[in-house]
Structure of ABC transmembrane type-1 domain-containing protein:
Amino acid sequence: MAVWLQYSLVVVVVVVVVVVVVVVVVVVVVVVVVVVVVVVKVVVVVVVVVVVVVVVVVVVVAVVVEVGLVP
């Protein structure tokens, strides 16, 4: 009986450790995915803003040169 109890305790400990490791891995993966999604969103917003600013500057410069305000 004592040997069976020892083995069952070992099995319980192993199962608990495996469950904890799996939960930690899942949490880490979820956190990494969330961080990557947030970073990608921020990068996309920054790229869009930069493109819009560049287009506006190019259009303004083209209009100013076309109108002849710049010698």
Q: What stands out?
A: The radius of gyration is 30 Å. Residues 47-71 form one domain.
